[in-house]
Design a protein that fits this description.
Elements: H1 2-6, E1 11-14, E2 28-33, H2 38-47, E3 52-55, H3 59-63, E4 71-76, E5 79-80, H4 95-98, E6 102-106, H5 110-118, E7 123-127, H6 132-141, E8 145-150, H7 159-172, H8 181-193, H9 197-201, H10 205-213, H11 216-222, E9 232-235, E10 238-241
Parallel strand pairs: 1-8, 2-7, 2-8, 3-6, 4-6
Antiparallel strand pairs: 4-5, 9-10
Helix pairs in contact: 6-7, 7-8
């Protein structure tokens, strides 16, 4: 009668890392979501053959890796930190640049969320629109609860991460129960926005910041569906491709 057990899997949405302490995640797969742009860039980089991506908390931590021949990537407030190879743009994570390489990455929101999840979760994986189907197939196949952790913006709620969480809830609702209200809200938001995600995101506060940073190309890229198969998974300190 394994089936009854199977159907009691739950899926929840944590709308900001500030709320992570409220969730029991010891038996959950936590999906870290930072759509603009860390988890999109990480997914794209791993899909393009990066050997590993190491998320670190501080810009200074990146420098400890300087001599190991790794690529160093640092973003703060949307911009590449001076003196680093690159930042958070998915266009920096092409096969030519990252194939076979290890990247050490620090970002404003995404790397923090990864570390918070890692402390307690059964497993931590990375999600983005780029690997939506691949991610959902994996979550469906595992007999684990799922927590979708939105990286937000400096611990505040944001629209793009919540929209993605809603897309996952929408794809998985047949396979999970025990939705929380934030899952319902995220899914409703996604259904409202899905026909034109970019247009919907013009409402977001982040969208004004991004306009000033002049990275519209990045935004459009990060909202593409299913251009990647890879699911990055945190193993120790490194994000590597999940072997399915």
């Amino acid at each position: 009668m394994n089936n009854t057990h199977h159907m009691s899997k739950k899926i929840e949405v944590c709308l900001t890392p500030a709320l992570i302490g409220l969730y029991d995640i010891e038996e959950s797969i936590v999906v870290v979501i930072d759509i603009l742009r860390a988890t999109s860039s990480i997914t794209y980089g791993i899909d393009n053959g990066a050997e590993a991506i190491i998320p670190v908390a501080n810009v200074e931590d990146c420098l400890n890796y300087r001599d190991s021949g790794f690529l160093l990537a640092a973003e703060r407030n949307g911009e590449v930190v001076t003196g680093y190879d690159f930042g958070n743009s998915p266009f920096s994570y092409t096969k030519e640049k990252v194939g076979g390489k290890t990247v050490v990455l620090t970002t404003t929101n995404g790397t923090k969320a990864l570390h918070l999840a890692q402390k307690r979760a059964y497993q931590v994986v990375v999600g983005s629109f780029l690997n939506l189907d691949s991610l959902c197939s994996y979550l469906k196949s595992e007999d684990k609860n799922v927590l979708l952790l939105c990286a937000g913006w400096k611990d505040q709620f944001n629209l793009e991460d919540t929209l993605f969480a809603g897309a996952v809830v929408n794809k998985l609702r047949q396979n999970f129960e025990h939705f929380d209200d934030s899952s319902v809200a995220a899914e409703d938001l996604y259904l409202l926005a899905k026909d034109d995600l970019r247009k919907y995101l013009h409402k977001s506060s982040h969208s004004h910041r991004l306009a000033q940073l002049n990275i519209e190309e990045d935004v459009v890229f990060c909202l593409q569906l299913n251009v990647c198969e890879a699911i990055p998974v945190l193993e120790g300190e490194r994000l590597v491709a999940l072997k399915k």
